[in-house]
Write a structure and sequence with these properties.
309 residues; three-stranded mixed beta sheet; 11 helices; mainly alpha; 74% helix; Rhopdopsin 7-helix transmembrane proteins
Length: 309
């Protein structure tokens, strides 16, 4: 495929140009990334090893943790390394790969969260039919559809990015490659491409958010008919999901559902959903979920006991 540009590499300006702040960026996001890797892999290993966490909710939680790990890994290591580099150079091919990964795993997270809300809706609103509706085959099909949908979305984004001609300059005012900052460098009228981006990424974020909010409103409304104990347990689970939805979709909607304008807080908002959300999700799902915490304790107790023998 012939590339319609003269730029072969880009220079990322990162979060800051100040040397002292760059060192702070390195320390802060190194800690964030280590916490993200440990937290999500703890959940993944626990859910794979536990015999008691086999419900559809934990089936989807496994994939949410896997996606969060991949999502963070596609962005954060580069940011950490660049914070110690004098020139933050990224090749054209690497940049396009990062655009694909960013949208693929970001879209996958949207679909998994929708599946998790569907699972809670069936469990709370149709408990008698729950084992039939949310059987393992159905859950597997939903995850496969999520992978396919995310791939289609990412292909659409990368096609838009590949159509952009870059003649210079090559300074990306961001810490990663995404369509929004790339549009500012294209030597063409980007109105139509921005419109397509908003109708794609923006529509997925907005539609997903509306679906999730409506589903949880219905779920919370139906809890009136449950016992106090059942209501408390359902509220605990749903509250965790609602917190994740808000911190995931708020920044995403802010970035992808507006005209091609930039604001000073754009990079910090992007940090929140590309790096903050994968770090916070394990904390939210473990600290607020007694079953996951108990399974983790049993798993590591067995591991420590077996190693001490």
């Amino acid at each position: 495929m012939q590339q319609n540009h003269s730029v072969t590499e880009f220079i990322l300006l990162g979060l800051t140009q100040d040397p002292m702040r760059q060192k702070m960026v390195f320390v802060i996001f190194f800690i964030f990334y280590v916490g993200t890797v440990i937290g999500n892999w703890l959940i993944i290993v626990t859910l794979k090893s536990s015999q008691t966490l086999g419900s559809p909710m934990y089936f989807f939680l496994f994939y949410l943790s896997l996606v969060d790990f991949c999502f963070s890994t596609s962005i954060t290591p580069r940011l950490i390394v660049d914070s110690l580099s004098a020139t933050k150079v990224i090749s054209y091919n690497e940049c396009m790969t990062q655009v694909f990964a960013l949208h693929f795993f970001g879209c996958m997270e949207v679909f998994v969260l929708i599946h998790m809300s569907l699972d809670r809706y069936v469990a709370i609103c149709k408990p008698l039919r729950y084992p039939t509706i949310m059987r393992r085959q159905v859950c597997t099909i939903l995850i496969v559809l999520a992978w396919i949908g995310s791939f289609i979305h990412s292909i659409a984004q990368i096609i838009l990015a590949l159509r952009l001609p870059f003649c210079g300059p090559n300074l990306i005012d961001h810490y990663c490659c995404d369509l929004q900052p790339l549009l500012k460098l294209a030597c063409m009228d980007t109105y139509v491409i921005n419109l397509l981006m908003v109708s794609n990424s923006g529509a997925i974020c907005s539609t997903g958010f509306v679906i999730l909010i409506i589903s949880y409103i219905v779920i919370l409304h139906s809890l009136r008919n449950h016992s106090a104990k059942g209501r408390k347990k359902a509220l605990s689970t749903c509250t965790s999901h609602i917190i994740v939805v808000i911190i995931s979709f708020g920044p995403c909607i802010f970035i992808y559902t507006r005209p091609p304008t930039t604001f000073p807080m754009d990079k910090m908002v992007a940090v929140f959903y590309t790096i903050g959300t994968p770090f916070l999700n394990p904390l939210i799902y473990t600290l607020r979920n007694a079953e996951v915490k108990n399974a983790m304790r049993k798993l590591w107790h067995i591991k420590i006991t077996s190693e001490s023998k």
